[in-house]
Amino acid sequence: MNKSSDAQRMEKIVSLCKRRGFIFQSSEIYGGLNGCWDYGPLGVELKRNLKDYWWRVMVHERDDVVGMDGSILMNRAVWKASGHEDTFTDPMVDCRSCKARLRADQLVEKKGIKQCPNCGGKDLTAPRAFNLMFKTFIGATEDESSLTYLRPETAQAIFVQFKNVLEVSRKKLPFGIAQIGKAFRNEINPRNFTFRSREFEQMELEYFCRAEEGMRWLDYWKEERLKFYENIGIARDNLHALTVPDEERAFYSKGTYDIEYDFPFGRQELEGVAYRTDYDLSQHQKASGKSLEYFDEETKQKFIPHVVEPSAGVDRTVLALICEAYCEDEAPDEKGKMETRIVLRFHPRISPIKCAVFPLLKNKEPLVAKAKEIVALLRPHMYVFYDETGAIGRRYRRQDEIGTPFGVTVDFETLGEKDLALRDTVTLRDRDSMKQERVPVKDLPSILVSRIS
Ligand code: ATP
After folding, report:
1. Cβ of 311 below 6 Å from ligand 1
2. Contact call for residues 258 and 269 (beta carbons, < 8 A)
3. pLDDT grade, residue 232 (50/70/90)?
4. Which positions ≥6 away from 16 have C-beta within 8 Å?
5. Which residue lies with its CA nearest to atom 13 of ligand 1?
6. Ligand 1 pocket check for 270: Cβ under 6 Å
7. Could you tell me if the CB of 197 is within 6 A of ligand 1?
8. Residue 313 CA, ligand 1 centroid: distance in Å
9. Is any atom of ligand 1 closer than 6 Å to the C-beta of 319?
């Protein structure tokens, strides 16, 4: 696809997200707040399905990982020891012509001269370090002694609780601690819809191991994480594992992969998988004076474990899922004429609504009663939507547009009015193939559960 069609595609995606209630601008009625977004009724379901699936494969389906949920506000000492207070910065440049504030790496370079990407101006300030952490104060006084930060990553809570979690979970190396939660970064230039936000969520695993096994676990987790993205419906061809070159890696990291996705606005990072050595635990041990060592019962040795960290962004993955799913194809309208259909081809596992139930006609009481009975039958197993308004084709189309993978229609056959053999059967329509099959109502829960899990 060329640049302008990619931009158009992105515009359509942003407008669909608003129109159907996936994502809204935060504080919209007051003009918004740059870099902050609200998830509407469908967005929150999509996000929740993503987080639940991550938790399922990273924690519940493994013996070697446990979870935790740390606080967003932490002692300032944490951010001093981790290095964030001194070095969690982006280089910032101001354009003196149009007054834009830019990240130094967003400047464009023409014939060796750096220019402002907004106005083309060449009168730029020298880059200066800008700390991305939001400051806040704890308690009633606003001075240095009460200063702390909103966490810019969830990982540090895991490191500082390492000893407690190790003790209560009675795990042996290698083992991991997983966490999902909000993080905040005062990004200089939030952009590309939710891609670069100031408030976002992360799904992070800190996987502790022996030093000699670090590089092996780094490769293992890179592969596991690629599989994860495929299992939520992202095509392997659109995913890339970039080996971060030595000069771009954090000084303490012995190896890092960026997992990237081909967004309509370019190839961009979804997740970082980094071998962080024993840097974080060592820093916190040094600064707190508390031992964060692991005692190996077999060798009777004490040492600080190394760690491999797959750190994924919830919001970036949600955006990738929507971009990947967005599709326009052709489908027949009420009169059989082909029309353009917008469809979100979500993997059923992450679709916000799993199944829509429709009575063929809303003014035929037995059809409505049967459809409501089916809704009640399915509700304990999945998120179901009931819709009786408009022609059936329109109802399908509304569901296609939000990615509902299955539609159940209750018709006169269901009531056994035409053929007794078809009594208590319904049509089950597949969003992608648009094919319909006739299935017994009693089998619906098991058929659908097997297709959405
Ligand atoms: P970038 O280079 O894009 O700023 P990063 O390398 O600083 O990202 P990490 O610190 O590795 O990001 O954070 C891990 C993950 O958290 C990222 O891969 C991304 O998915 C998510 N993330 C980081 N910053 C943001 C942000 N401003 N908005 C949304 N998600 C983010």
Report:
1. yes
2. yes
3. very high
4. 22, 326, 342, 344, 401
5. 311
6. yes
7. yes
8. 6
9. no
Given the CA of residue 269, which atom of ligand 1 is nearest to it? 18
User: CA dist 364 to 65, 356, 360, 369, 410, Å?
Assistant: 53, 18, 9, 9, 11
Look at residue 335 in the predicted model and tell me its pLDDT: 79
pLDDT value, residue 244? 97
Half-sphere exposure of 59 (CA within 13 A, CB side): 19
The mean per-residue pLDDT over the stretch 222-243 comes to 98
DSSP 177-230: EEEEEEEE---SS-BTTTTB-SEEEEEEEEEEE-GGGHHHHHHHHHHHHHHHHH
Q: What secondary structure does DSSP assign to 27-88, as a single string?
A: TGGGT--TT-EEE-HHHHHHHHHHHHHHHIIIIIT-SSEEE----SB--HHHHHHTSHHHH-
> Which residue has the least CA distance to atom 30 on ligand 1?
313
- At 1 the pLDDT is 54
How confident is the model over 180-193, as a mean pLDDT? 95
* Pocket residue to mutate for ligand 1, from 134, 253, 316, most atoms within 8 A of Cβ: 316
Q: How far apart are CA 411 and CA 415, in angstroms?
A: 7
Q: What are the distances in angstroms from CA 27 to CA 30, 38, 59, 143, 416?
A: 6, 8, 35, 29, 52
Distance 59 CA to ligand 1 centre (A): 22
Question: Is 272's C-beta closer than 6 angstroms to any atom of ligand 1?
Answer: yes
Mean pLDDT value across residues 311-320: 98
Handedness of CA 430, 449, 355, 412 (dihedral sign): positive
Neighbours of 337 (CB within 10 A): 7
pLDDT at 86: 95
Average pLDDT (148-173) is 97
The structure tokens listed for 279 are 């840097």
Buried b (16+ CB within 10 A) or exposed e, 134-149: eeeeeeeeeeeeeebb
Tokens 């994480």 belong to residue: 225
Q: What is the 345 CA–ligand 1 centroid distance (Å)?
A: 26
Is residue 326's pLDDT more than 60? yes
C-alpha 193 to ligand 1 mean position (Å): 14
Q: Determine the pLDDT at residue 44.
A: 98
At 362 the pLDDT is 95
* Whether the CB of 271 sits within 6 Å of ligand 1: yes
Q: Which of 269, 308, 315 gets mutated to test ligand 1 (max ligand atoms within 8 A of its CB)?
A: 269
Give the distance (Å) from ligand 1 centre to CA of residue 346: 24
